[in-house]
Amino acid sequence: MGKQTDFSGDTLDQLMASARAGDSAAYRRFLSEAAQRIRAMLARKIGADSELEDVVQECLIAIHAKRHTLDPGRPVAPWMYAIANYKLIDHWRRRGRSPIEFDDAADMAVAADTLASTDIETLLEKLPRAQADAIRMTHIEGLSNREAGERIGVGVSAMKLRVHRGMAQLKKIAEKDRI
Amino acid sequence: MNSTDSLIDQLAQDGAAPRPASLPRFVAPLALAMAICAIGIALVLEAPFIGMAINGPGPMLVKWGFSIALLLLSGFALWFIGRPGKATGATMATLAVPFILLAALLGADLAIGQRAFPGETWQRCLAAMAVMSPIAFGGAILAARWLAPTNLHRAGLVAGMFGGAAAMTAYSPHCPEHGMAYVAVFYCLPILTMAALGWLLGPRLLRW
What we know:
The complex is a heterodimer of chains A (179) and B (208).
Chain A (H helix, E strand, L loop, with lengths): L10 H10 L3 H23 L5 H14 L10 H21 L7 H11 L5 H5 L4 H12 L4 H8 L3 H23 L1
Chain B lengths: L2 H12 L7 H23 L5 H6 L2 H24 L7 H6 L1 H17 L9 H25 L5 H20 L8 H26 L3
Helix pairs in contact in B: 2-7, 2-8, 4-6, 4-8, 6-9, 7-8, 7-9, 8-9
């Protein structure tokens, strides 16, 4: 077999080699391990964004569809992370063109107009934790998006997105409760 | 089971064996594009290699030496760039080698003496380059889409360079002109223009 079986010891390399030898269970484990590592990498870059899992899935589909571009015997990790980075940039590009617009003034006005007589903590518990934390920091503690992002290690855009989505969700919940 | 686990189950059913004939799938569009260029030129123009009877084999060897070297280098670079996780700076640098050698020949040619410029067939040359380069560029784009380029500008540029080199390889046997200034202006500039277009269009055409 020679050089093609000279693995680096990385689990991904071993699983891919077994998978390519026809072991379908190994391929499933490979994809699971890849998903974990990509999720961790993405979380460092975009935080626990609600779209994180979507990006992870896009990465897995790309890795599967383009698996013929991984040369046998070549380490999997650089190849996999290159694809994940490409998909992340593509995700940012698409989100940059998405119809979502951040309207900080409108987001700030919601609590006064809609939620004044409501127990805000009870409402926040109905949101995903990342969105609830974002709203607590920016609307209760009074931090800016940048300060809040720095506190938990995510970018300003990711923080804005969390606040925006959280506030939109709060509006829906509050209006539904009033009805 | 969450949706990612479901997806993994679906993907795992296909298995991990590399798709067969990966290299032929990449080479086929390139070869087809080359064949279209060569056949198209041969159908329209007559008397290939007539310039060799007039000027000897030197100019033809220089033109084909340049264009075939660029064709092979750009094809190889496209294959390399299409494999994620590889450093491609050195590969890109090798694409400059044919241009550097040609620049040296141009310097020597200009030092030796003046030649008639631009010659009598420059319009036909430009037309051939303008028509054939995009065809071969299309083949290179198809080939690159089979791979997974992560730097789309760079991959587009190389595809454009391949397109220009293919057009030059197909047309130059019908070109009676000689002189390095002619090659520089009527071959190199169109090739670099096609490469620049490829750089611009790469992100649109190669996204995956």
